[in-house]
Amino acid sequence: MNDPEMTRSERRAASALRELFATQRLAVLATQEEDGHPYANLMAFAVSDDLKTILLVTGRSTRKYANLRQNPHVALLIDNRSHQPSDIHEAMAVTVLGEAEEVSEAERDRLLQTYLVKHPHLEEFASSPSSALFRVDVDRYYLVRRFQHVMELHVRR
Amino acid sequence: MSLALSLPEIRPPHQTSVGGKCFNLAEMEQHGVPVPGTICVPARAYRDYVAATGIRERIMLELGRKDFDDMRWEELWDASLRIRNIFLRTPMPGDLRTGLADALSNRFRGEAVAVRSSAPGEDSDAVSFAGLHESFINVSGIERILEHIRLVWASLWSDAALLYRRDLGLDVADSAMAVVIQELVRGDRSGVVFSRSPNDDSQTVIEAVYGLNQGLVDGTVEPDRWVLDRATGEMLSHVTPSRDQRLVAETEGVRLEPLPEGLSSRAPLTAEEVATVFDRAHQLEDLFGRPQDVEWTWGERGLVVLQSRPITALAEADGERRWYLSLRRSFENLKVLRSRIEDDLIPRMIEEAGDLARQDVEHLSDEGLAAEIDRRAAIYEGWVDVYWDQFIPFAHGIRLFGQVYNDALHPDDPYAFMDLLTGTEMASLARNRALEQMAAEIRDDARLEAALRERLAHGRDTEIDAAFQERMDDFVDRYGDLTCAVTGGARCGEASGALIKILLEMASHQSAGERRSRHSEKERSQSVTREEYLDQFEGEERARAAELLDLARTSYQLRDDDNIHLGRIEAEVLVAVQEGQRRLERRGLEEAERLGAAEVARALRDPDFVPSVSAVEETEDDFLIRARQLIGQPAGPGVTQGRARVIASQADLASFEHGDILVCDAVDPNMTFVVPLASAVVERRGGMLIHGAIIAREYGLPCVTGVPDATSLIRTGDALTVDGYLGIVTLTTRRGDPVDDG
Fold this sequence. Notes:
heterodimer, A: six-stranded antiparallel barrel, 5 helices, 7 strands, B: alpha+beta, D-amino Acid Aminotransferase, Chain A, domain 1, eight-stranded mixed β-sheet
């Protein structure tokens, strides 16, 4: 594809994502219970430079850990609302769809480092043997701006 | 602080809250200058109102649909029309209403008043909002006054004011508005005085007209003009116009009337009165410590000052803004423009196109052809200027009508007034009707249909009924081959099968003509009729309302016709350019068909000139973007689902199928023959008054305009939902899955 308009839209969308991720520390993670019921948590997150991977840390005894092991399909919500009426037109929200997987030993050091650059105060928690580092391989982003303007950004793999 | 301040109550700390106009009136009154009885409604009342009613957020939503810098003038018109309707339809909350109503009835006791803007920051040294916000003269009754306060508030969001703030980089979110309510001084002479002339520091300038000041300020009535020596008051010159009209107050509002016998030969001010105005202006300059621009009127109380503001060293409005401000035309002004367009400009355009069409370009030398290309391009450019300077401002007639209609009827849909404009005879509708008649013939004649299909498959050799062939030829003569990029360019494309294809498509589906008449019937039962509109007005106002409707219908029709006429001239430029391109191709120049007029002319003159062809930008490959839901402007009510047909070039039109959603950069009248086949229209260009919206409305189709990047984010074959109520386009599924192609 060499449509310059499209390239411009892609760049704009990618830079909007980077800007949002730089200012936000927490994401809402949605997982699925064994009985199919949805389950949501607030999580510290970090994102890889290429925007293709999102990193999360969870304790191994948690319900979300069990859910992730059982069903790797997840959704995340990251937004910059300020709890004012103006959020309706000013806030941006990103819904992420992807597959979660506990990181392998081989890449653990590198990815943990990415996570800790953003959340240095979580080092003890993240490094504990009772915690698990997950990577979410992003399939697509839905960017919602201006109340109802929605773009899908698909990650090519 | 009270929400209604009288002038003696105003103190220096109130300045930022009551705005410059109000504060200066208080200063003047406190120094014994005669001014009208005045109540100031500070900006806090505005803030309370927009906060309590939620209007603040609705405005931000309206303006936040897309980047403000990306909004075209038509979109700003629309946004400001919708915002104005919100103010019109939203009463003040109880406390505010009661407080203001009490203060107003105590002060004015039923007298007529003027309701004027006094925006904080307006008329400061740095910026002047003169003329950008609305003022209303001669308003009576508490309810009417309260309504007009809301309209002055709304004018903070007029398109001109929005554009001006954008140019100055002012934050629209922080804007607020104070209002001045003044006793109406029925002066029989009025005018302005600049204590220091903007043109010459050593002079003072006085302008005066008979009647009310508004006639002078909006340029409807030409004034007498005196230039005086600023130091001595000595009269240096007096220019007299042909005095023939004056603006007077009527039951509500104002009216232009012929000047009574006897006044036209007499200047509105005597020499002595000129001296009085001069002295007053210099008193005010001393009071405020800088040169003043003063509006005054002369009545029973003698000279009364209506307002005084500093003369700002305002940079001349730049070209775009000046043009933009010129779009605010008065009714009188529009009537003049109308006769110029109808009686002079349009006939001249038709003549010009005809003259050009009769000239043969094939027998010109290369040098002669180059000169002819330049000449035609210059003629075309001249008409493009006329288009921007005369035709587009004339479109303001539609808006003026919309405003009068909305003020009188407070409709739910701020565009309901368009229903009284549709059905106007437009050139493109006549063309579409001609198509529909041919399609109907095909529908009833299986042999004719078979012959046309045969022709499409096997070319010219197939015999077609001679009478029908003649009708098709006539159609092409009159309207051009349908895939030609410009109107009437019969010679610019191959005599392709486009016309036959479209006719067959129209013939095999429901009659578009029927659809249109059904739409009209449905609309008729729901919408306000002409009579209901006129019944809102009485006496002379009713006659004016009828005249305005007639003017608006002409404006509406011209929104389409002007492009058709301009297109015919453009087609003649193209005829010469294409002749040039053919010669360059024969000379061996590659891709000559991609060259513009100037390059073709240059290459014809200079065989060594090699024009460059632009390169395409490289793509980054990590992501694939897809639109899921796009926001534009609602431009035709209705919701529909269908398959997108993206029109990138005129040639794409031939494959348009019944039920397709027309997606394009900008619908121009040369494309609108497919609209009867379409189920909805989506356009990148924004606004209610663009052709796509107007034609969609004619055919009762859902329409969303102002969708950024519409033609690149939407592909032919995508399943779309078009929501013409909210201005939203949703891509439901995409044909194939381009994600996997990477």
